[in-house]
């Protein structure tokens, strides 16, 4: 019976397909646990504190305990997530390389889900308790993002990694779905239900993750021998031979590597723009153009949906181009990175000049994030090209910088619009975005690389420095080689 079930499981879905599905759902729910508070907090505080709700609307609110948090406390609760988040980006990536992504990603999600369920109780207890809880929740989720890169190095052949990394952009899809769902829960059941529902979903996913996912094909108990050999052979072919696990991290060579800094700086510039657009768009639309975008669920979800769609499209074409040999890995990464970052930079210039129109502004921001989704085919997958053994460490470094960028964008907007929130003051924000995007694109264009770095195997006297990951052999070629080996 066990054998039959195992056979049915592997015939219906391959283990790699299951991994893709679970990673997509994982990043959807990851962002769900992150943004649920940003929606629920509007109803958690007294309406006369935030001035976001009219008297009539207040009467229709479900009878729940609400909190007299002033604006400073309100924003501190929202920002406390990042206090813990920035601490575990780099350690999370390195720990995934050592103990495996299964424990780091799954464990981080499980703990964050449990803390999410405890959020209402924390809020009832004390204001400082919820501050600490959200910081600890950020601590666990911060480790999850860089953990996926080391898993990709074990499961995904080099020429298919752009598509796999695009799964991370399911976070945008998660945000797009979470907004209207949480809004419905708040209006029908109350704000506390948001945390109970999203927390339970996260726990269920975590249990499934530990039951279905393993760190490598060799460790998976249900994988077929054919699938395991196919994955391992393709990875070995693409990387020029099997890589042994390094005994130490070549920190000096990592920090002196221009291709690494190209990833870190470009990621920081791109995410700075992303956070500014997503977080500040509702404020700009409401204060300057007197159009409350948050009232329209479709418009508030459009930027997230647009980015995810482009991530899938760009990653598919990037892997096709690399497999065909029409573009080298270096050229592919540079083309898609430039495309994904330079176009939003140009669109921000349009916004700075003609941004007084609400319809144009929504279109500019949505199209900007749509094109930015192509980063999955550019720098976002690049750490797996240049150093698959340390891809988690590199992504952790990049995401740490980008997290500070998200915080910095809110401070810049606050300073520039402190006196008055008008189009004249917001112009400076848009021109800063133009400079940031263009700088990131040019820096990567100059220093980015798709070549496997020698320090990826620091224990070896002679590495693969200067060689790109090779296009994979076709299925007929692999089958022909097997036939020859069997005859021999």
From TrEMBL:
<keyword id="KW-0813">Transport</keyword>
<dbReference type="GO" id="GO:0016020">
    <property type="term" value="C:membrane"/>
</dbReference>
<feature type="transmembrane region" description="Helical">
    <location>
        <begin position="393"/>
        <end position="416"/>
    </location>
</feature>
<feature type="domain" description="Major facilitator superfamily (MFS) profile">
    <location>
        <begin position="18"/>
        <end position="452"/>
    </location>
</feature>
<feature type="transmembrane region" description="Helical">
    <location>
        <begin position="21"/>
        <end position="42"/>
    </location>
</feature>
<feature type="transmembrane region" description="Helical">
    <location>
        <begin position="297"/>
        <end position="314"/>
    </location>
</feature>
<protein>
    <recommendedName>
        <fullName>Major facilitator superfamily (MFS) profile domain-containing protein</fullName>
    </recommendedName>
</protein>
<feature type="transmembrane region" description="Helical">
    <location>
        <begin position="164"/>
        <end position="187"/>
    </location>
</feature>
<keyword id="KW-0472">Membrane</keyword>
<feature type="transmembrane region" description="Helical">
    <location>
        <begin position="104"/>
        <end position="125"/>
    </location>
</feature>
<feature type="transmembrane region" description="Helical">
    <location>
        <begin position="131"/>
        <end position="152"/>
    </location>
</feature>
<feature type="transmembrane region" description="Helical">
    <location>
        <begin position="335"/>
        <end position="354"/>
    </location>
</feature>
<feature type="transmembrane region" description="Helical">
    <location>
        <begin position="193"/>
        <end position="214"/>
    </location>
</feature>
<dbReference type="Pfam" id="PF07690">
    <property type="entry name" value="MFS_1"/>
</dbReference>
<feature type="transmembrane region" description="Helical">
    <location>
        <begin position="254"/>
        <end position="277"/>
    </location>
</feature>
<keyword id="KW-1133">Transmembrane helix</keyword>
<keyword id="KW-0769">Symport</keyword>
<feature type="transmembrane region" description="Helical">
    <location>
        <begin position="360"/>
        <end position="381"/>
    </location>
</feature>
<dbReference type="GO" id="GO:0006820">
    <property type="term" value="P:monoatomic anion transport"/>
</dbReference>
<feature type="transmembrane region" description="Helical">
    <location>
        <begin position="428"/>
        <end position="447"/>
    </location>
</feature>
<dbReference type="InterPro" id="IPR036259">
    <property type="entry name" value="MFS_trans_sf"/>
</dbReference>
<dbReference type="GO" id="GO:0015293">
    <property type="term" value="F:symporter activity"/>
</dbReference>
<dbReference type="InterPro" id="IPR050382">
    <property type="entry name" value="MFS_Na/Anion_cotransporter"/>
</dbReference>
<dbReference type="InterPro" id="IPR011701">
    <property type="entry name" value="MFS"/>
</dbReference>
<keyword id="KW-0812">Transmembrane</keyword>
<dbReference type="InterPro" id="IPR020846">
    <property type="entry name" value="MFS_dom"/>
</dbReference>
